[in-house]
Write a structure and sequence with these properties.
Vanadium-containing Chloroperoxidase, domain 1, 249 residues, mainly alpha
């Protein structure tokens, strides 16, 4: 296999199961029914904590932190994230696939969190964590890529365990998240922006993160993972402003 094709290994991995679930829709339902109760052998807090790493606010904070060592990737962060978010919004509204608790008989889904009010397809959490993993492993060795893949898989499984997504939602979401960020890394100013533009963009992103953190603090969460979201956001925010202050001296 040539190096060019090796770089497309996420697509080669995801396309066959996506195609199979599209060809046999009942397999999508049966796979959910098999995995959902089996995953409940692990404690519910584990799945809710894992799901945090697929929340866009948390993912954007982590992407920003990762970009500090590779500021030339900041354009990809912005373009890839916006593209993935807009794509998720459009597809969820267009397909309007109902989530498992809305179509399965009562008692077959044990919800571990609140049921989102939007469509199920594709999974926004899968898109977000796949975009994060793609950004993080870009140009890295296979060992690092494997670690990020494990995180993405854990987030995807958490959405089945929580009871809010079908397997097809997650596989398609991961594919779209990878494609969005990979295209951005390849084509969105791959050499990066000028230093002043980069600094301004970082400042804007930190201000947006501060606004998100203020909103979180004003809407206290129900479960303990709320504080994980707050902690990640606060740590990235403080570190980011400290870095900007040092670089401006």
């Amino acid at each position: 296999m040539s190096p060019r094709w090796i770089s497309y290994w996420p697509a080669l991995l995801l396309v066959p199961p996506i195609a199979a679930l599209l060809l046999w829709p009942d397999a999508n339902r049966q796979l959910f029914l098999a995995l959902h109760p089996w995953l409940h052998h692990a404690p519910a807090p584990l799945w809710r904590f894992a799901s945090v790493f697929g929340d866009w606010p948390t993912v954007l904070a982590l992407l920003l932190a990762l970009s500090w060592r590779a500021p030339q990737r900041l354009p990809a962060l912005v373009v890839g994230s916006i593209a993935a978010i807009l794509l998720a919004i459009a597809l969820k509204a267009g397909f309007a696939v109902p989530r498992p608790p809305l179509v399965l008989p009562h008692g077959m889904v044990d919800l571990l969190d609140k049921l989102p009010g939007n469509g199920s397809f594709p999974s926004g959490h899968a898109m977000a964590v796949a975009a994060l993993a793609t950004f993080a492993w870009h140009g890295a060795r296979w060992g690092k890529a494997a670690g990020w893949c494990l995180l993405a898989a854990l987030v995807m499984l958490s959405r089945i365990a929580i009871g809010v997504h079908w397997p097809l939602d997650l596989l398609a979401g991961a594919m779209l998240g990878w494609a969005s960020m990979r295209l951005a890394l390849s084509h969105a100013w791959p050499a990066g922006w000028a230093r002043d533009v980069t600094r301004t963009a970082q400042m804007i992103l930190l201000v947006l993160l501060a606004g998100e953190l203020a909103w979180l603090l004003g809407h206290h969460g129900v479960y303990a993972e709320y504080w994980l979201r707050v902690g990640i956001g606060a740590l990235v925010l403080l570190s980011g402003f400290a870095r900007l202050a040092r670089s401006g001296r």
